[in-house]
Write a structure and sequence with these properties.
The chain is an all-alpha fold and 258 residues long. Helices cover 53% and strands 2% of the residues. The chain has eleven helices and two strands; from the N terminus they run H-H-H-H-H-H-H-H-H-E-E-H-H. A two-stranded antiparallel sheet has the order 1-2. Strand 1 and strand 2 form a beta hairpin. Helix 4 crosses helix 6, helix 5 crosses helix 6 and helix 6 runs antiparallel to helix 7. It is elongated and about 65 Å long. It starts with 40 loop residues before the first helix and ends in an 8-residue tail after the last helix.
Length: 258
């Protein structure tokens, strides 16, 4: 069972399409121009608290497999098809409660999705982004959830690009991936609980085992042991000038970003 105490997290985004259903709201849809000012911090804090409590209650008690399926369903809802009908339905959603700051936030998210404004949630923490993107209580609109998910994905892809570049440098210089696996484990441990739940259940323990092994892929041996027969280092000694295998040919470095 996954511990959901105080959680707020997200699955990796995918491009699966879904249909947006207009939800009844306590107030009629308001036609609001995209705001230029930032979302009021105090109001946002209250919305995050309400959304987080609802999400924790909604997902409490699910085992890992069930939770993963629910997270996938959450993402399909957020990444609805951007056709006119769905965009209009999403834009008509009104947050609950429909105070001025919340309505401005929803309008800013709609403007971002339309490509007319920057992401209003840039600068929030991953925990906050996860809380928004997984909110099913109506506190945040689907467009706010989509904007938050988009920002989290942007940050994740930037991290992945950086860490894979460092991994290639480590591999080319030492034949090892130990620092890379350590960086990945540190990053994983810093993710929100629900985002961690989108990874395989043994993801952390597998990384820990790789770090402990300290495997040298050139020598095909752990630590600083001598090259084993048939290893890349052994073949290079017997065939000077031979190129080592590509890092990506040898390893599946990270789970696919859906």
């Amino acid at each position: 069972m996954v511990n959901l105490s105080g959680i707020s997290a997200r699955p990796a985004a995918d491009a699966t399409t879904a249909t947006v259903q207009s939800k009844p709201s306590a107030a009629p849809a308001a036609k609001v121009a995209a705001p230029t000012e930032k979302v009021t911090v105090s109001t946002l804090a209250g919305r995050l608290s309400a959304a987080g409590e609802h999400t924790a209650a909604r997902l409490q008690g699910m085992d890992h497999a069930t939770l993963q399926r629910q997270l996938e369903a959450d993402v399909r809802k957020v990444f609805y098809t951007l056709d006119p009908a769905n965009k209009a339905a999403a834009a008509s959603e009104v947050p609950t409660p429909a105070d001025d700051a919340s309505i401005k936030s929803a309008a800013a998210a709609t403007a971002f999705i339309a490509g007319k404004a920057p992401n209003p949630f840039a600068g929030l923490s991953r925990e906050q982004l996860s809380t928004i993107s997984h909110d099913e209580s109506g506190t945040f609109t689907v467009n706010e959830r989509r904007a938050a998910e988009h920002q989290a994905n942007k940050e994740e892809q930037a991290w992945r690009s950086q860490v894979v570049a460092a991994a290639m440098n480590e591999y080319n210089q030492t034949g090892k991936m130990t620092r890379f696996f350590t960086s990945v484990l540190d990053h994983f441990n810093q993710l929100p609980a629900l985002e961690q739940a989108t990874y395989p259940e043994d993801y952390a323990s597998d990384l820990q085992a790789k770090i402990k092994l300290d495997f040298n892929y050139f020598n095909h041996a752990p630590g600083d042991a001598d090259p084993t027969p048939g290893s890349l280092a052994d073949l290079a000694q017997r065939r000077p000038g031979a190129q080592p295998a590509s890092l990506f040919d040898m390893l599946g470095l990270l789970p696919d970003a859906k």
